[in-house]
Write a structure and sequence with these properties.
The strands form five sheets. Strands 1-20-19-18 form a four-stranded antiparallel β-sheet, with no helix packed on it. By secondary structure, the chain is α+β, with helices and mostly antiparallel strands. The chain has three helices and 20 strands. The longest helix is centred in the first third of the chain and has 94 residues. Strand 15 and strand 16 form a beta hairpin.
Amino acid sequence: MRGLVVLVTLACFANAQHQALIDYLEQRLLAIEDRISLWHEQTTRYASELRELKKQMVSQLENLDKEKEALRMNLDGVGTRVDRVERELDYLETQNGAQPCVDVDDKLIEQQVTLVQEKQKAKYFKLSGCSDMISSIKAMKILKRVGGPKGMWSKDSSRGSGKVYIFNGTDGDTIHEFSSAQDFTRSLGLSLSRSLKLPSAWRGTGHAIYNNHAYYVNQVEDLMVVKYDMTTNSVTDSAVFPVQDHVPVYGLTPETVMDLAVDEEGLWAIYATRQNERHISLAKMDANSLDIEQMWDTNCPRENAESAFVICGTLYVVYNTKEAGRSRVQCVFDVNGMVSNEEAPLVYFPKRYGAHSSLKYNPQEQLLYAWDDGYQILYKLVMKKKLEI
């Protein structure tokens, strides 16, 4: 009897273990089914998102193909218009023959030289009430480095103009125009500039920008000043400068045969001749007609001179000094005799890279635009009255 009870007990215990195992397996299967269901939902969602992304990419590629085709058609149209313009220019050139060359008569040159000598003796009458002179250099700002070691850059000296112009190098036939100094600063090289192709080549670094005109020096046989209108892209006037046996104006910048300058009084020409070879000369020019109004022989030597500029009728010549990396205004000539070298203050330029190949004064801003070994630099000037000396 006792053995039967033991067998029944063991059977019940085995059934209980079997049922527990079945329950555990059912729970695991349900958990696995839940996970499979979740994975299925996630896979379906990812597949849907991938299909949507594929549609968007296909649509964008189609739009890009359309834009590419439109751009190609525009470029074809531009090419056609350029060809048409070139044909029209060729036609105009055939209709308008080249201007004949004019030989300058020796008597005419002698008359011009005589007129120059008379103008050197005349008294200069100022066009403006300006009586400022440099007291010191307040600040120096390096904008960027572009182009070769020598060149010229300047802002239009006329009131209200913000355009900046670049003459890269010491000879060429192209001017680079920027709409503002900010555009010039952020431009990659000269990429944001508008190129102005001149009808004749310029030489040196002595050019000037004044009232929407570029005044540049051209030298083939005679020394010529050319006036170029940058709004109409045409030459409005040109004149042979009435001096004989001219020589480079600065000893340290031999490429510059004449330096044109602008101040409150208008347009000036800084030059040198073999007759006065050791010193620099100065001339006041009419910016409209390019006539010479008056001329002066100064006592400023050419030797070791880098560049020069004019402010309120006073010529400032900059020289390379023995102090490392520095230059200074070492000679001053005032056309009215109000300033002398003994009375003028010592003006030193900050240390820099090489030598100034050009210094251009802007009377509206009282800034000097300098080109120094390929660096474009601004010098802020501190001014004082000449009568305060």
